[in-house]
Each structure stands twice: as C-alpha cells, then as structure tokens.
Design goal:
The complex is a heterotrimer of chains A (about 100), B (about 190) and C (about 400). By secondary structure, chain B is an alpha/beta fold. Chain B has six helices and seven strands. In chain C, the strands form four sheets. A seven-stranded mixed sheet of chain C has the order 3-2-4-5-7-6-15, sandwiched between helices. A six-stranded mixed sheet of chain C has the order 12-14-13-16-17-18, with helices on both faces. Chain C has a two-stranded antiparallel ribbon with strand order 1-8. In chain C, helix 1 packs parallel to helix 7, helix 8 crosses helix 9 and helix 11 crosses helix 12 (about 335-350). The chains are: A alpha+beta (about 100), B alpha/beta (about 190), C alpha/beta (about 400). The interface of A and C includes residues 10, 15, 17 and 19 of A.
Chain lengths: ~100, ~190, ~400
C-alpha cells in the first residue's frame, strides 16, 4: 500500500535546532548576552524576546534571562543586530580558547 | 460521415438565446427517444449582437463525431437580417428546411430546393407577454411545426422546465403561438 | 439521472459528488464555467466546501497544496497558460505526494495567444509526476473525476483529468449523474496518512540533502533521490491500482470499461489509429467508413497517459501492421509525444513491430474535419503508410 510508511515518502522534519547537525563549531564570533542590559534580565520577568523570535536556528530560549545553546548557534549575529537594548555583543571565538 | 444523423444549424446573434433554443430542442428530442443528441456551439470572440451559430445533431444512436455540421438538414434563423450578413444556407441539404423569424411573407424567401417556414416570432412573442426581442422560445414553436420531429406538448413542457423562474408560462405561450402561426412555403 | 449539459458542468457535478472540501481556482477560458458552477454550488449551500478566490493559478495550486497538507480533499481546474503558470507548484504537489485532483479543459498555449483547443498544455506537464487521464465524452468526465479522487488517495499521487476545451467543455450532450449515496459508498471521506497539526509542528519538504540523515529525534530520513524513486515506484503502482478502482466503480455503478485504453474494432485490424480525447471518438465514424470499403481499420483511444501503460498498449496493438498516431500536441524539434511513447512501448513489448505514422492536427482550434481524418487515415492504411515526412500535418493552409 502506497500509504504505508507515508512519512518516509515525503520530506518531513521536526522544527528546532540541530536540523543540520551540531553547528556550534561553525562559529567565529559568539553572541554574549549582558543580563543587566537585556529587558527580561533587567526586569527579572519574561518580556521582549526579540532575539528568540529572530534566531533563524531556534537556539535562544524564552527564559529569564534568555539563554543561547552554543552547541548549535552558528554565530550569525542576527540576535545582536535586532536586540533593541544592544544587550548582545558578538565576541571573537578565539578569546574563549583557554591556553 | 454518418448519414442517419439529423443536423440542425441555428443562426442567431450573441445574447439572443440561440444556444438555449437548441438546448431545449435537444432535451425535448432526447425525451422523445433520440439517445444521441449533441449541441456543439462554435466559439470565438463573440459579442452581444454579433452573428453566432450552433450545431445540433440528433440520432437514434450515440453520436461520436462532435465536429460542426457541414451539411445541415435544417437551418433555423432567429433574425431575418442575418440573411444579409451570412450565407445561412451554406451546405444545406438539397431537400432541406429553413425556419426564419421574419415579418415578411413566406413568398419573399426562396432557397433553391428547400422548404421555408416563416413566422413573425418577434411580434408573436410580445403578444405572448414576453419583452421585445425575446425570440428563442417562440422560434422553437415554429421549428416544431415545420420540422415535425418533436411533439408540441413535449416541447412546451421542456420550455416550462427550462424557464423556471423566468416567465415559463409566457415562453410556453410564445412557442404555442408561433407553432400555430408558422406559414410553410418554398421549393 | 440523465441530463443534457456541458462538459464543464459534468466536471463540476463530479467534484460536488466527490465532496471536495477545498476549491481554489482562477478563471480562464474555457475552464471558467466549471469554477463558476462550483462557486454557485458552494454559495447556494448545495456543496459544503471552502471556495478560495485567488489572484493567479500559481496561488490556486499553492492553496490546494496547503489544504491537502492539512488533510482536506482539494480540487482545482485550469487551462492553457494558467496550467503553465502552475508548473512549479504542479511538480511540488507530486513530490509532496498530495492526492489533489485537477481538471484541465485543454487549450493551446501562447504565443501567439489562442483560446481554442489542443493538447499542448497538459502534454507539456507530462513529466511532472502527475497521473494524467483523458476523457472522450461527458460520461467519462464525470466518472473520471470521481475515480480520480479515489485513485489519488489510494496511491498518494495527484491526478489531472483532461478534456477538450470547447469541443467537450462547452458542448451539450446527455450523461448520467450518479446518485450521491452511491458515490459516498464508492468514495468514503478522505483519511490522510499524515496531516499538519498545530499541536505537533513540522517542516514539510524543506531542503533535503542528497544523502539521507538522522533528524533531531534520531529518526533516519531519506535523501532526495530515494523520495523521488518512491514517487516513480508508486506511479508505476498506479497502473494496477487504477484497475482496482475501476472494478470497484463497476461494482457500485454498473458501468465502466477498460480504464487504460478504449479499443474500437481493433481485434482484427491491420491498421490502428491512436489518439487522446474526443478526437478518438471522431475517428470511430472514419473507421466505420473505411471498414465499409474493406479496409480493416480500428481506433485505440488512450485514457491513461501517465503512468504510461506500455504493455497494455502494445498488447492492444498486437497483430496490426501499421499504427497511425493523431496528435494535438508536439515536442517541438522532434515529433508528437504520444508517437514517441508508443514507439518506445512497441520497441520493448512487440514481437513484430508495426510501422508508426504520425499526424499533427487541430492546433489552436484548427477545425478537424471528419473528411480530413478519413483521407489521412486512408492514405496511411497501406504497407507504405508511414512513407514520407516523419510527422505530417493535417489541415495546414498557407495562403
């Protein structure tokens, strides 16, 4: 019956991080959130979440403060660009390498 | 190619109802036992008032050839002025029949070898209570009288069904009046 | 119930009886009266469905794709350049394995602009992964539309039901409208094997890698090529599936016939004319006339064009010495597509290969006279019947 295993016959995938594997290693610059500037962080309450909305890989959580999943974040910088309070800074990945 | 078909070509003007007239005759003839009826309109860039024609083929058997009539047995003309614009008898069989809505006398028409039937359908339809220019129910009354292919009562019933909500009584009366006032001539 | 109506009305009644739930269509001559009829049915409450007006054919099919992805039985219809404008979405619907049904009231394609009949529109969509069925009269239109939903949902491949613009779409003839209860028994409500669900979001048909890989959950998903291979496999599977659909249809409605081809006087024929659509029926009278002259001719009308039932067609042509293909479409720079397909079928399946002659005719509504057909077929009914040009044209009139 052609309807058996129908899900295999179409390209169907879950939305969410990791659709292309662990892409965190692709990153050259890392977004770092300053919780004192970030709106949910400052108010200590859920708010704003522009970063969560814009992240093309869905790796930012709607938590207080928002958290970024660096296992998957490719470092595209869209969150930093869109953040209305400029709470996100893109930091050279090399500076995190411990000697 | 099939010689046992009866082919009827209807000439009218866009918006005049030639297609509806042919459709009613198709239905009435189907009811009367002709299992093969096809009505093939010719389409183009027709507009209201422009000459149009449609072919009705009827047979006792299913009709497979849908190409337009080339040699009609009968030609029906909804407006006598079309005679000046079109060669309405083109291909008409030698012992054919021409049915015309015209105020002129039947002797004014001569199509060599063909019978002619004339009624002033425009005037009779107004007398039946229809608005000026509604001639498609009337002309099929004349057709029924002249061709003798379909019983008047079957035709009137088909007209009443077709015109439900659009003056069925008046349309039926127009067909009846035209049936009674069709003058035969020609040859 | 027997009624006398147009081919477009026959199609609309079929869609209504099939209880399609979503209709999205853009009007184009000669399909327009079909979509007008459907919107009237929905407006009057005779038909329970969503009619979604759109600004283009591309959007019409996109809406049907979305509706079918959400699990609704969906229908659209078009003609000519409208079909060409859908081209991208046509391929999408097939690859997405959605059981859509579309009517194509066949019309030539521009340039130059034409509104009249030929088969270039649907034939040019031959390789898109849709099943294509060609109807010869109104009974076949209404029955094919109902069967098409059944077949599409059985094999999860969309179906095009094609019928000649004007010649069938606008011609009145008698046909039987099946009873609603019988159609319901034949075609139960659509139960999708998968439907989008807001509670369980998913990506459908996003970028798919050449190789298969594990998804977020660790489930292995197939690569592009496997997904396409399965489309081909299920298309081939549609050939026997159509027979099952036909058998069920015959048991419910007591009518129907060979769903692949319709042979007429082919059994002992030396020469067989082959064509698609209403032209096949016009050839019946031609064959009768040739038989009266002692020429053993027959007609083979091809109903199922994709998947191409090559073995069945070769079998139907067995024993004849000449095949004469009449086509209202052309693969420019080569020959008629049906002619090529037939030759390929005969190459593979025939023990002794007949000659194959090809006539191109009726493009853009050029009138096909029965006399022209008679002369062409008669000229080909001889051992030298395929002599001369590879493709010959009927009805050309250069002034």
């Amino acid at each position: 019956m052609p309807t058996r295993d129908y899900r295999k016959k179409i390209s169907l995938s879950e939305s969410g991080p990791g659709d292309a594997g662990k892409t965190g290693s692709w990153r050259i610059v890392r977004p770092v959130i300053d919780a004192d500037v970030c709106i949910p962080g400052r108010r200590n309450a859920p708010a704003c979440y522009i970063c969560w909305l814009y992240c093309p890989d869905g790796v930012i959580s709607r938590s207080v403060p928002p958290r970024i999943d660096y296992q998957y974040c490719k470092g595209c910088g869209i969150c930093a660009e869109e953040c209305p309070t400029k709470a996100i800074t893109m930091v050279e990945e090399s500076s995190f390498i411990k000697e | 190619m099939k010689s046992d078909n009866i082919e009827i070509r209807w000439h009218g003007r866009g918006g005049q109802g030639a297609i509806t007239a042919a459709k009613i005759v198709a239905k009435a003839m189907f009811t009367s036992g002709y299992t093969g009826v096809v009505m093939v309109p010719t389409f183009g860039t027709e507009r209201r008032g422009a000459p149009v024609f449609t072919s009705l083929k009827v047979s006792r058997e299913k009709i497979y050839d849908l190409s337009p009539s080339k040699e009609p047995d009968i030609v029906v003309v909804l407006d006598h002025l079309l005679l000046e614009e079109e060669d309405i008898t083109q291909g008409l069989k030698h012992d054919g029949l021409v049915v015309i809505n015209s105020p002129l006398a039947v002797r004014s028409y001569r199509f060599n070898g063909s019978r002619v039937a004339v009624a002033d359908v425009t005037d009779l339809s107004v007398k039946a209570g229809l608005p000026q220019g509604m001639v498609n129910s009337g002309i099929i009354g004349s057709f029924a009288r002249a061709a003798g292919l379909v019983e008047l009562d079957v035709l009137l019933k088909t007209i009443e069904d077709e015109f439900i909500g659009r003056k069925p009584g008046e349309n039926s009366r127009a067909a009846q009046l035209c049936y009674e006032n069709t003058i035969m001539g020609g040859l | 119930m027997q009624i006398i109506e147009t081919g477009n009305t026959a199609a609309a009644l079929g869609v209504k009886l099939a209880r399609a739930q979503v209709i999205a269509a853009y009007p184009i001559t000669p399909q327009t009266p079909l979509t007008e009829k459907l919107s009237e049915f929905i407006e009057s409450g005779e038909m329970q469905a969503e009619y979604i007006p759109v600004e283009s054919e591309h959007s019409a099919l996109a809406i049907c794709i979305a509706a079918a992805s959400a699990g609704a039985r969906s229908f659209t219809a078009t003609s000519s350049n409208g079909l060409l404008y859908m081209h991208e979405q046509i391929q999408w619907a097939a690859g997405a394995r959605l059981p859509l049904v579309m009517c194509v009231a066949n019309r030539g394609v521009g340039a130059p602009w034409t509104i009249w009949n030929d088969h270039q529109d649907s034939i040019s969509q031959r390789d898109t992964g849709w099943i294509q069925i060609y109807a010869n009269d109104h009974q076949q239109i209404i029955d094919s539309v109902i069967k098409a939903f059944c077949l599409a949902e059985e094999v999860m491949v969309p179906v095009m039901v094609c019928y000649d613009g004007y010649i069938l779409s606008h011609t009145h003839m008698p046909f039987d409208v099946p009873e609603s209860e019988k159609v319901d028994a034949f075609l139960p409500p659509y139960r999708p094997p998968y439907a989008l669900d807001p509670a369980d979001p998913a990506n459908l048909n996003t970028v798919t890698m050449p190789d298969g890989r594990a998804d977020v959950r660790g489930d292995i998903s197939l690569g592009y090529m496997e997904i396409r291979h399965l489309l081909q496999r299920d298309m081939m599977e549609a050939v026997p599936a159509l027979n099952r659909v036909e058998e069920r249809f015959q048991s419910v409605f007591g009518r129907g016939d060979n769903p692949y081809v319709e042979p007429y006087r082919c059994n002992d024929a030396d020469y067989i004319a082959v064509s698609l659509g209403s032209l096949s029926y016009q050839l019946h009278d031609v064959v009768d006339a040739l038989r009266d002259e002692g020429i053993r001719a027959g007609v083979l009308s091809v109903h199922l064009y994709r998947p191409f039932p090559d073995r069945i067609i070769a079998e139907a042509l067995k024993g004849c010495s000449g095949v004469v293909v009449f086509e209202k479409a052309l693969s420019y720079g080569y020959q008629g597509p049906l002619c090529s397909d037939l030759k390929s079928a005969l190459y593979r399946h025939a023990e002794s290969r007949p000659f194959v002659a090809n006539y191109i005719l009726g493009l853009g509504g050029r009138e096909i006279t029965t006399q022209d057909l008679y002369e062409a077929l008669k000229a080909s009914c001889s051992p030298e019947g395929s002599a001369g040009e590879e493709t010959r044209w009927i009805g050309l009139r250069f002034l």
